[in-house]
Amino acid sequence: MSASNLGKVAVLMGGRSAEREVSLMSGQGVLKALQVSGVDAHAFDPAERDLSDLKREGFDRCFIALHGRYGEDGTVQGALELLGIPYTGSGVMASSIAMDKTMTKRVWLAEGLPTPAYVLVHREHLGQVSVDGLIKALGLPMIVKPAREGSSIGVTKVLTAEELPAALAAAGVCDADILCEQCIVGDEVTCPVMGAGETSRALPVIRIVAPAGNYDYQNKYFTDDTQYLVPSGLSAAEEAAIEALVVKAYQVLGCRGWGRIDVMIDGATRKPYLLEINTSPGMTGHSLVPMSARASGLSYEALCCQLLASATLDHVQEVLG
């Protein structure tokens, strides 16, 4: 689809989530790429403007560069459905499920897909949590994180029993649901997926080597100390197995457009475990989807235009079957 056929485009960025800063960086990158490609694209921050302005000002489609709550969790998607403005990425239900790490794990487990063992703790019950019980169930080290945040916000890798109460409290500041998860020790990889249904395809796998194995918010976005290896250095068989796994994980959640799935490979058994999915991945200078796309021969600008061209609505998907 040519740039002139994409119409007037709003790049939704910023928003009200804890990931606002990252979203603004993603959005500015996308905006520039679309404009350079000849698209009539404009910045639009839902934290500063009412979404009804999209209809009033005649926008034809939206590129969602929002991350986290109110942008990646089905809320903006639902509003755009009501406005009848096609948007990039997954629809209402898939976005909502994927934003909730616990619900995502439940779907994956129901479909027989591997994901680390977990225990869900509710913030209101923190005073009743048994540290010994959690360690018995999941072992140490353990990952503690908010169930509905991204960009490693509120995430702690717990190494000792003494660290667990503070980790639970930190996650509880971010979310009422706290996900305690078995820590898989081994290679950390991520793999983007594009398309919808049977046309979904994986982009090249990226292996992540972070300082001291700590791939946190700072190391994701604001340092150059983390190594991103693409080609990943894994065997062809392992890469193929991971690509097949993430495509299946993406499909069973009903995702479309694009997404990025994080995977841990057990260092001893080489078994891959699904961690989580991002349905509105980062598009900053440090972001992984553009990196993987480049490795497959797709430039940043072409990636943005391709994603924009895939913008649609849930009810259109239903009509088309």
Automatic annotation (TrEMBL):
Name the pathway it acts in. Cell wall biogenesis; peptidoglycan biosynthesis
Cellular compartments per GO CC: cytosol
Q: Where in the cell is it found?
A: Cytoplasm
The domain of life for this entry's organism is Bacteria
Principal subcellular localisation of the protein: cytoplasm
Which of this chain's residues are annotated to bind Mg(2+) 1?
D262, E276
What is the cofactor note?
Binds 2 magnesium or manganese ions per subunit.
Which residues are Mg(2+) 2-binding? Answer: E276, N278
Span of domain ATP-grasp: 105-309
Give its E.C. classification number: 6.3.2.4
Per the entry, which co-factors are needed?
A: Mg(2+); Mn(2+)
Keywords on record: ATP-binding, Cell shape, Cell wall biogenesis/degradation, Cytoplasm, Ligase, Magnesium, Manganese, Metal-binding, Nucleotide-binding, Peptidoglycan synthesis
Q: Which GO terms describe its molecular function?
A: ATP binding; D-alanine-D-alanine ligase activity; metal ion binding
GO BP terms, alphabetized: cell wall organization; peptidoglycan biosynthetic process; regulation of cell shape
Please list the reactions this protein catalyses. 2 D-alanine + ATP = D-alanyl-D-alanine + ADP + phosphate + H(+)
- Any keyword Metal-binding? yes
Name the catalytic site residues.
E19, S151, S287
Biological role: Cell wall formation.
**What does the sequence similarity comment in the record state about its family?**
Belongs to the D-alanine--D-alanine ligase family.
State what protein this is by name: D-alanine--D-alanine ligase
What organism is this sequence from? Limnohabitans parvus II-B4
The record's gene field reads ddl
